[in-house]
Write a structure and sequence with these properties.
There is one protein chain. This protein has one domain. 72% of the residues lie in helices and 0% in strands. It has 5 helices and no strands. Helix 2 runs antiparallel to helix 3. It starts with a helix and ends with a helix.
Length: 68
């Protein structure tokens, strides 16, 4: 994530996708009818990613930040 932020500072862009494959999924979903796009989101677990963050990863991140 830090590398993507640094890259955006060096070469400003409106959107930066992490991971890059997310862009393809998003663009594909925008071309589909809403019902199909929502089904695709459920099938890929897209909503779950935002609703259930990885607490261990978050804790490790916060620990690293405190050490800076």
């Amino acid at each position: 994530m830090a590398a993507a932020i640094a890259k955006t500072i060096e070469k400003p862009r409106f959107d930066r996708w992490i991971p890059r494959s997310g862009r393809f999924l998003y663009l594909s979903a925008t071309l589909l009818p809403r019902r199909w796009a929502e089904a695709l989101g459920r099938a890929t677990g897209a909503a779950r990613v935002l609703a259930t963050p990885d607490q261990a990863a978050r804790g490790a991140y916060e620990k690293r930040v405190r050490q800076l």
